[in-house]
C-alpha cells in the first residue's frame, strides 16, 4: 500500500467533504458536513431573496436549544426588529421548543408592526420548512405579518 492510500484511509466522510469543498474553491472552515450542506442551501436561497425597505427579510436562525429571528432591510443593512426564545417574556413561558418558536413568531410580528412593517419575505436560513421554522412563520402570520 502506498503512502497516499494509507493517508486517504484515515479521512472520514466529513473531512473528505471539506477537502472537496476546498478544492472546488469554496472557503469553509473545518465544519461538519451537515453544516456545509446547510450553508450551501443558505447561500442559494440568499441569491434569490433580498429584503427591501418596503418588504424586508424575515431571517431565521435555529440552534439546538433556541431560535432567533430578525427583520432585516438588506438595502440599508439595518435590522428593523429582532426576537428570540431567550427574551424574558418567552423564556418565562412553559412549553416545548415548537410552542416557544410560535411565541417568537408572534413577538417578531408585534415588533415589526410597531416599526411599520406589514409584509416580509421569509428566509428559512437553509433549514427545512418544518417544525420550529414553520412555527415561527405561523406565529408571525397570526401576529399580523404578511409572508
Tell me what the structure shows.
The protein is of the alpha+beta class and 147 residues long. The protein has helices at 3-9, 13-23, 33-48, 88-91, 97-114, 132-142; strands at 57-62, 67-73, 78-84, 121-123. It is 46% helix and 16% strand. Helix 5 (97-114) packs parallel to helix 6 (132-142). It contains 6 helices and 4 strands, in the order αααβββααβα. The longest helix is centred in the C-terminal third of the chain and has 18 residues, at 97-114. The relative contact order is 0.14. A 4-stranded mixed β-sheet has the order 3-2-1-4, covered by helices on one side.
Counted beta strands: 4
- The whole-number mean of residue pLDDT values reads 85
From N to C, what is the helix and strand string?
Answer: HHHEEEHHEH
How would you sum up the major sheet?
4 strands, mixed
Quick summary:
Helix content is 46%, strand content 16%. The protein has helices at 3-9, 13-23, 33-48, 88-91, 97-114, 132-142, and strands spanning 57-62, 67-73, 78-84, 121-123.
Features:
147 residues; alpha+beta; four-stranded mixed β-sheet; 46% helix
Blueprint (SSEs and pairs):
Elements: H1 3-9, H2 13-23, H3 33-48, E1 57-62, E2 67-73, E3 78-84, H4 88-91, H5 97-114, E4 121-123, H6 132-142
Parallel strand pairs: 1-4
Antiparallel strand pairs: 1-2, 2-3
Helix pairs in contact: 5-6
Amino acid at each position: 500500500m502506498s503512502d497516499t492510500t494509507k493517508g486517504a484511509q484515515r479521512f472520514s466522510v466529513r473531512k473528505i467533504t471539506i477537502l472537496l469543498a476546498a478544492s472546488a474553491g469554496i472557503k469553509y472552515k473545518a465544519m461538519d458536513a451537515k453544516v456545509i450542506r446547510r450553508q450551501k442551501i443558505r447561500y442559494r436561497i440568499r441569491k434569490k431573496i433580498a429584503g427591501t425597505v418596503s418588504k424586508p427579510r424575515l431571517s431565521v436562525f435555529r440552534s439546538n436549544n433556541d431560535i432567533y429571528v430578525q427583520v432585516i432591510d438588506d438595502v440599508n443593512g439595518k435590522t428593523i426588529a429582532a426576537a428570540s426564545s431567550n427574551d424574558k417574556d418567552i423564556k418565562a413561558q412553559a412549553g416545548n421548543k415548537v410552542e416557544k418558536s410560535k411565541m417568537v413568531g408572534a413577538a417578531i410580528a408585534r415588533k415589526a408592526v410597531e416599526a411599520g412593517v406589514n409584509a416580509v419575505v421569509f428566509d428559512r436560513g437553509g433549514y427545512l420548512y418544518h417544525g420550529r421554522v414553520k412555527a415561527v412563520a405561523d406565529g408571525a402570520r397570526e401576529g399580523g405579518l404578511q409572508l
